[in-house]
Amino acid sequence: IARPLAELPLMATDTAYLPTRHDGETPARPLWLLAELTYACPLQCPYCSNPTELARIGREIGTEDWKKVLRQAREMGAAQLGLSGGEPLVRQDLEEIVAEGRRLGFYSNLITSGIGMDDDRVARLAEAGLDHIQISFQASNAEMNNFLGGTDSFEKKKDMARSIKRHGYPMVLNIVLHRKNIDDIEEIIAMAEALDADYVELANTQYYGWAWHNRDALMPTREQLAHAERVTTEYRERGGRMKLYFIVPDYYEDRPKPCMSGWGDIFLTIAPDG
Asked: What are the pLDDT digits (tens) for 111-169?
């Protein structure tokens, strides 16, 4: 049952509430804070992790509460800050939150679709102290990218990827893989090379939120996964310039792997409603 936000702690800082590391004794301290700043997003991706019933979610927390989250996370030991959504660019206070992260000593990473960004905003984010920008694509071509995102965004994404590079950031691309695009793995890698990407994350879909709802249409076959992993491995073995990260799923394994080294071990997520 939902309670008013004021009655709920944004984070527990007492070690009694923290999980322990693998030795069973040492309290786990998060190294990575993922701040999901908003559920709002201009795209309509079928693999979105947003809750399917947003009407039941409480109000999104404001600027000062997010600053409180950042301070508490630093006190707990977090050093890296991810800013995501939804689409974090819809937050008009994004630069203020970035600046607070810099003041606290975080290494900050904006995880974005690129929609709502232009050269001026990249410059403002850089001035606020943002360290890193990761931009997402839905596919390697405009037709599939725009179909999956539900909007005409492919050329805009390419423009923003180039803008990120012009402002001195490494170009980091993210492509979520599923049945509809995984067979185009060679084309995805070629697109990233053409954009002069430095790092590429090939992230297999995590099935919760809308992705769980749409799982029957999105789940790749075992053979599709094996092919994609093989293509990625062959690229690395050829000495390709880009750094490729293929996030291996456990869809067809006997038991699930420990996500992010194990629950509560190094990674902490705060949802838009706190």
From this structure: 999 999 999 999 999 999 999 999 999 999 999 999 999 999 999 999 999 999 999 99
Two structure tokens written together for 196: 């002069």
- Residue at token pair 């990233």: 192
Is there a contact between 146 and 182 (Cβ–Cβ < 8 Å)?
A: no
**What is the DSSP track for 194-240?**
HTT-SEEEEEEPP-STHHHHTHHHHPPPHHHHHHHHHHHHHHHHTT-
- What tokens does 241 get? 């310039």
User: Please, are residues 206 and 174 in contact by the beta-carbon 8 Å criterion?
Assistant: no
97/64 Cα distance (integer angstroms): 9
CB 249 within 8 A of CB 204: yes
Helix (H, G, I), strand (E, B) or coil at 142: helix
Residues 189, 164: contact at Cβ < 8 Å?
Answer: no
Threshold 0.90, pTM exceeds:
no
For the residues of 137-158, what is the DSSP string, one character each? ES-SSHHHHHHHHTSS-HHHHH
Look up residue 186 and give its two tokens.
């060679």
Both tokens assigned to 232 = 């990625």
